[in-house]
Amino acid sequence: MIPSSTWTPPIIVGFSELASDVQLFAGLGIESVSAPPTKQWTLSRTSEDQRLTLTRPDGVALCMDFTSGKTRHRTTESGMGVQGLSKALGTKNYLKHNGRYPAIVDATGGLGQDAWGLASLGCEVSIYERHPVVHALLSDALQRACSDEQAASIANRVSVKLVDATEALQPHSTEAYAIYLDPMYPSRRKKASSKKGMQFLHELLGPPPAIDSPDLLEAALTSGAARVAVKRPAGAPLLAGSDSFSGQRTEISTPNTRYDIYHCLA
Which end of the chain has a smaller Cβ tally under 10 Å, C or N? Predict the structure, then answer.
């Protein structure tokens, strides 16, 4: 974990064997280079492997992919891995009363795995992601999934928007039934053995603050959604901003995770 006092945003360059990516890099505000750099953060794509990949100076790479590995398993087993989250968001109850799964906003997109699990269940999911490079990786993964025969129907239920959720969730602005928040855990609760994807996010976005800002939860609670589900580590305090909520709050707990559920509408 990088101490917050020493973190600076990484400088990323772009390298691609596809001419079309020059425009992508320009839109992201990163410099295009003519040869693969070494010992530098690089967003790249080759003609052989056309997946957009982010590589750290130490050579460790991150590529988001919804068509292989555990995510592929979630595709074949609808809702695999998100049963607790699905219950927290009230998806089955919504299906029972409305004959369809609800629309969900995943306001802290990150690696997109929970959003994909919810979409494989049958939900329409809008991912909000504020970092341009993370957004590009998610968009690339979704585009490739749309071309995959087995994953296309799920990918078509997912959209990703380059927005800051705190700004996008204006009062009474959403038509989604529920909002999901999975903020990065405070630094004191993260282990040195964090998974690779989370390590990348910490280095791109900065380490999680020791004290949460209440803005995100408050924006979600006033957005017009019927419920807000917040993922927290077991034993962690409520997310900052919960004190302003006067409605019913329930929770679902597992050995390592707790979902705090804010019921905004009767």
Answer: C
